[in-house]
Each structure stands twice: as structure tokens, then as C-alpha cells.
What we know:
The complex is a heterodimer of chains A (157) and B (286). Chain A is α+β, with helices and mostly antiparallel strands and 157 residues long. Chain A has 2 domains: 3-76, Beta-grasp domain (Ubiquitin-like (UB roll)), CATH 3.10.20.30; 86-156, Orthogonal Bundle (DNA polymerase, domain 1). Chain A has helices spanning 23-30, 86-94, 103-116, 123-129, 140-156, and strands at 3-7, 10-14, 49-52, 55-58, 71-73. With 286 residues, chain B is of the alpha+beta class. Helix content of chain B is 35%, strand content 22%. Chain B is built from 10 helices and 13 strands. Chain B has helices at residues 9-18, 31-36, 73-80, 85-92, 97-102, 105-111, 119-125, 216-225, 236-249, 260-284; strands spanning 2-4, 23-25, 44-47, 57-59, 65-68, 128-133, 136-141, 146-148, 151-152, 159-165, 172-177, 188-195, 200-206. In chain B, strand 6 (128-133) and strand 7 form a beta hairpin. The radius of gyration of chain B is 19 Å and the shape is globular. At the A-B interface, strand 4 of A face helix 2, strand 3 and helix 5 of B.
Amino acid sequence: xxxxxxxxxxxxxxxxxxxxxxxxxxxxxxxxxxxxxxxxxxxxxxxxxxxxxxxxxxxxxxxxxxxxxxxxxxxxxxxxxxxxxxxxxxxxxxxxxxxxxxxxxxxxxxxxxxxxxxxxxxxxxxxxxxxxxxxxxxxxxxxxxxxxxxxxxxxxx
Amino acid sequence: xxxxxxxxxxxxxxxxxxxxxxxxxxxxxxxxxxxxxxxxxxxxxxxxxxxxxxxxxxxxxxxxxxxxxxxxxxxxxxxxxxxxxxxxxxxxxxxxxxxxxxxxxxxxxxxxxxxxxxxxxxxxxxxxxxxxxxxxxxxxxxxxxxxxxxxxxxxxxxxxxxxxxxxxxxxxxxxxxxxxxxxxxxxxxxxxxxxxxxxxxxxxxxxxxxxxxxxxxxxxxxxxxxxxxxxxxxxxxxxxxxxxxxxxxxxxxxxxxxxxxxxxxxxxxxxxxxxxxxxxxxxxxx
Lengths: 157, 286
């Protein structure tokens, strides 16, 4: 089947899509966007987190046909040209990236948390928001530092 | 595989009648796992995301909250947490924020896993499942809905339109055992609802029998023991006996998540604890 959707503001379509295919597979293998990562394929790890109509979801659990006519934003869509998004910048500065596999999902999920928080979220809120994103390098402390830094900068701006 | 995209509820029912073997997909948090891991290959997917009628909740003529089959856990928590506290507590323990953004109570009912988090509070509050087909609408009391492991009372041409839950008329609690706070399939779970207006107690047991189930003997015992008017503290003996009766109502097995003995023990503990929390709230609510 054919699927039409908007990804990172750009209208895209894919042909000969298998009906049981996930949005994640289509993004990575058909639309040339390998940012969202494929790991558990069962919603456990969060490394495929993308926005679907402004709501963060596991792209592996969305059938691509369900994204027909809808808007998807992946980690590739957060930076403005060469200028990193605040969350990406904070991850770089805080050393929140080790192997990097979980990073795209964590950045999208943290981006959503910060966008929906009026001030700087409490640590408990950050931990809850990121509870579905696993980092197997166990670099959580630096990740929390990065989220606090990005939130503080947003609150100050 | 076919991908069916009804634009309206009427179209969805017509498609389900025409293709009863089609698997409905809403949040995809169960269905896509099966497909991704090649555990099952549906003949067709019936995508309910485009059906606008399912996206909202309302207050029905009977005063019950009619929660549309497309209302996510996240929205239920944010918008109905005050009126459906037991179900909202259970919803908060589902998966992760990303999963709660997609998953729904109706999806939990459709999957009918004995470990589903929605089931215990739905049982404790006496919810009703609104099923529909081209033949008409059928109201299925929650106690008749679960028919076996991952089996429910829906006919092949039926879809879940909504779940109807009475707003809380007293304290409600949900408790769940797992290895961490997120992304946990329940080892076992328990929900308690107090109904002071009719001096009744509701219970729901999860992940400790082939289906979610109530503990009727425990409900009856506790309703008779509680000092509804004076709100005197519950005695240790009463709490312990309630826990025993809850545990006795279960029929757990040993499996990868826990043993039979542990589940029986944990259920008694959760029953006592939720009773303690609920009765404390009731005592304060004078």
C-alpha cells in the first residue's frame, strides 16, 4: 500500500509498504531517516521515540498505515539547520552521550517534557518522564544533568 | 495482510461485520508487539485511529462516565483522575509515558490479558463494556466480560465502543507488584473500591488467575465489618481476614514473573494495604 505523511515538516510518501510494517521501519528503511533507533521492537526501550501529531510515541508500535495523513517529527527535525536544539546542545555539553544508541529517543522524550513543563521539572518528574527510555551504558546521571540544563536555559529565556 | 481504515464508527462496524477476522488496532501497544516479534500475523488490521467518535469521553444518562475506546491512558489520567481514581492509578502504572500516550483501556479489554492493569479497578467499580456491531449495541457487565486467558465475551463482529464506569462514590486504590516502577507487567495486582452510599466493597484481582476476577467473599465480609457510620479504625483481625479472603479468591500459577505462593502472599498484603489507605481517606472525609 501507499502511505502519505508529513515528516519533519516535509510531505513524504512511501510505496509498496507492507501493511504490518511499523512507522519506525518506514522512517528508517524507506524514508532515509535513521535517527530513531530500532532495538526492542516492543515499546520497552524508548530508543525509537518520535512525535506523532505532537505526542511522543514509540514508533515501533505505530503501524505505518496509522500515520497516514499525520505529522511525524523525528530527532532529525529538532535542529534548525546547523544550530542544535537546546536539548541536543545540553546533551553535548553535559557528556550525556556514550554509545549514543538511546540518545535520539531520550532527546525527543526530554524535548517533550521540557516543552510541556512551565518551569524546571523536579527530578522525580524527569525520572518519570524518562522511565521508558533505557540507556544500557547506564549514563543516567549525565542525562539528568542535561535535561536540567536544557530546562533551566528554557526557563531563563 | 489488509489494512482497513474506516473513517467513521458506522464504517468500522460494517468492516468488522464483513471481515470478522480483522484485528482492531488502536494504540498498537499490544498488536504491534505481536507483529514485530512475529508471534502472530493478523489477516487484516482494522485501524480505529481515524474514528473520531471514539476519541472522547462523556457523562452518560445513567451518570456513568462513558470513556470512548480511543481515549489514551494519558488523557484518562489527566482528565478523569478525580472521578475515576482507581482506574487512573492503574493507568499511571501502565508501561511508560510513550505507551500511555497510545494505549487505551478498551485496548486492554480487547487483549484481555489476565495481567492487564485496567481490569482490577474496572471489576472493583462495576464497570460495563459497551460493545457494538451492525446488529446493535450490547452492554456487557465487566464480571461477564473475561472468559479465559486472553479471551473475552466479544462476538467476532463486535467492537468495543466505550467502557462505562461509575464515578467514585468513595475511596479507591490500586496496587501492583513488579520489579521496578515503570515498564512492568504485573506479577499480581489488586484494586479496592469503597462504596459508602450502599455500604458495599468492590475488589479486583489481576494476574493471579486465568482471568481478572473479584473476591466476592472478601467483599461481603468487609462490607459487614466496616463501621460505615462511626468510621472507627479497622481492627487488625478484620484487615488480616480480608487479606486472607482476597488471597483465597485467586488461583495463581508459577510462571516467569513469580510463583504461586508469592502471588498469594502478595495479594493478602496488597489487600490489607489498600484497605488501610482507603479507610484512612474515608475517616478524613468527614
